[in-house]
Amino acid sequence: MSRDKHQRRLLPAYLATGSSDAPLPTTLDTLTALRASGLPLAAYHTSVHRRVVELVTDGSLTAVEIAGYLRISVSVGLVLAEQLVSDGLLKASVPTPDALAPSRAGRPSKELMEEVLSGLQSLLVA
Question: Does residue 91 contact residue 84 with C-beta atoms inside 8 Å?
């Protein structure tokens, strides 16, 4: 029986993550940027862990992109990323909404300041 190239492979989550224990509560977001720290993998890391580190060795990817490249569910990708971050093999950068990003001059963006002003004006009216 041949497998269609669009058919997902069936891989239990505990095999991909190398653990049958309950997953760690994740603090990562699906858009968290992940990059390799340069530390070597330990003997207990699976081939999937190794592949995740290889994907981000020369740059960074989000947790969703990693799941897409590996053809695994996003939840399993988050568990893998959380394991590698807690082991010190990946560094995570939380995405910053555009309105919160500082401008080139180091000041808050115009959009953020407009939101603050709007909030203050609504407090004065109430």
Answer: no
Q: Alpha carbon of 7 to those of 4, 13, 22, 46, 77: distances in Å?
A: 5, 17, 27, 23, 18
- Is the full-model pTM beyond 0.70? no
User: What pLDDT was estimated at residue 61?
Assistant: 92
Among candidate residues 125, 97, 92, the one with its CA nearest the CA of residue 112 = 97
Low-confidence ranges of the chain (pLDDT < 70): 1-26, 96-106, 126
Nearest to 64 by CA among 48, 75, 53: 75
Distance in angstroms (rounded) separating the CA atoms of residues 90 and 87: 8
Give CA angle at 35 (45, 29), nearest 5°.
Answer: 90
